[in-house]
Amino acid sequence: MADWGSLIKEAREAQGLNQEELAELVKVSRGTMGHIETNKVRIDSDVFTLLITALRGLRPVELLEAMGFPVTVPQSDRVPAAIVRAIAPLRPADLLVLERVALGLQREPASPRGRVER
């Protein structure tokens, strides 16, 4: 099993982003992104949600498994609601976004103005 930092780095590179560009999408500093990719810091639910939204090649289930959360639906691209809730505490609005992203209903991160960036 790959470590979660490597999964994030591979997905970032596959999408053609550098650390600074992904850091901006995820709302962290470039240095923090470097620490995330080298497993020096754990990601919280907000960063998790932004990562799986920004990195469309990153499967939520795969990232959860690499972070040590047991996933009972192998090879699934969908995160069961119970597992999404297990990474709580999430605000209800964040939980809804995470569930929508995990189910593939929301593909792109919303811009700070509420518009979808393309």
Quick take:
This protein is mainly alpha-helical. The chain has helices spanning 4-14, 19-26, 30-37, 45-54, 60-66, 81-86, 92-102.
Structure, explained:
By secondary structure, the protein is mainly alpha-helical. It has a single domain, classed as 434 Repressor (Amino-terminal Domain) (Orthogonal Bundle), CATH 1.10.260.40. Helix content is 52%, strand content 0%. Helix 2 packs across helix 3 and helix 4 packs parallel to helix 7. The chain is globular. It starts with a helix and ends in a 16-residue tail after the last helix.
Keywords:
disordered C terminus, single chain, 434 Repressor (Amino-terminal Domain), 118 residues
Q: Main beta sheet, described?
A: none
Distance between the termini: 33 Å
The helicity comes to: 40-55%
Query: Can you write the helix and strand succession as a string?
Result: HHHHHHH
What is the tally of beta strands?
0
Supply the helix-strand structural class. Answer: mainly alpha
Q: Based on the structure given, which CATH architecture is correct?
A: Orthogonal Bundle
Looking at the structure, the CATH topology is 434 Repressor (Amino-terminal Domain)
Integer tally of domains: 1
Strand content: under 5%
What Rg do the Cα atoms give? Answer: 13 Å
Overall pLDDT: 76
